[in-house]
């Protein structure tokens, strides 16, 4: 018989970020662009949110809600006909919240050139069946970079909570 309690316990022993990371690829079509043929910022933010939510859901095995999106810099435009690759990876978890780093890259199919266009940190909260915050498994940090990201995420969280408290 399938033992749910064992599965719950195993999940709560923690998961490394590599088990929940997500790679998503989109083709920039005419409907995704502005009059200059560049990818619309709003469309990119939507893709970033989706990629981040999939990683957070994979980690928590729950539906998640976005509670904060840190500043999003547009470093380089993605053009019509290019591929946009989104890589989402967990950087930090609290009790019910998770921070995900999403990096967006544009790939020119004619030249093969790939450039980093955007980076964002998004916070999601795992929800139970009643839409209330639910505990998430700990994050097992395996690399030096993951340990550094986790420490930096603690500082970003403190800033976010300060902003939230100010209302
Ligand atoms: C998600 C929601 C149910 C959480 O309810 P809440 O009353 O804020 O719950 P809490 O205060 O217990 O916060 C839950 C967690 O989120 C964190 N959190 C909440 N707002 C945050 C913010 N702005 N930045 C960072 N973390 C935040 C809390 O610190 C807590 O983390 P922890 O459990 O890891 O310590 C509620 O905020 C909500 O419905 N928000 C709207 C979500 C939404 O509509 N998103 C867009 C579509 S998905």
UniProtKB/TrEMBL annotation:
Pfam families noted in UniProt: 4HBT (PF03061)
GO biological process terms on file: acyl-CoA metabolic process; fatty acid catabolic process
Bias-annotated ranges (Basic and acidic residues): 145-158
Stretches for region Disordered: 143-167
Keywords noted in UniProt: Hydrolase
Keyword Repeat: no
InterPro entries named in the record: Cytosol_ACT (IPR040170), HOTDOG_ACOT (IPR033120), HotDog_dom_sf (IPR029069), Thioestr_dom (IPR006683)
CC terms in the record's Gene Ontology section: cytosol
Domain HotDog ACOT-type as annotated: residue spans: 18-130
Gene3D superfamilies: Hotdog Thioesterase
GO MF: long-chain fatty acyl-CoA hydrolase activity
Family as reported in the entry's similarity comment: Belongs to the acyl coenzyme A hydrolase family.
Record-given protein name: Acyl-CoA hydrolase
């Amino acid at each position: 018989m399938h033992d749910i309690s064992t599965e719950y316990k195993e999940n709560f022993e923690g998961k490394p970020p590599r088990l929940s990371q997500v790679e998503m690829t989109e083709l920039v079509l005419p409907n995704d662009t502005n009059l200059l043929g560049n990818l619309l910022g709003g469309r990119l933010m939507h893709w970033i949110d989706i990629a981040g939510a999939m990683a957070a859901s994979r980690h928590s095995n729950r539906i998640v809600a976005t509670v904060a999106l840190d500043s999003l810099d547009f470093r380089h435009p993605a053009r019509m006909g290019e591929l946009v690759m989104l890589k989402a990876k967990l950087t930090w978890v609290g009790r019910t919240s998770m921070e995900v780093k999403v990096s967006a890259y544009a790939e020119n199919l004619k030249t093969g050139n790939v450039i980093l266009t955007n980076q964002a940190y998004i916070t999601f909260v795992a929800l139970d069946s009643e839409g209330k915050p639910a505990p998430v498994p700990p994050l097992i940090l395996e690399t030096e970079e993951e340990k550094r990201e986790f420490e930096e995420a603690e500082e970003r969280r403190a800033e976010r909570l300060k902003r939230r408290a100010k209302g």
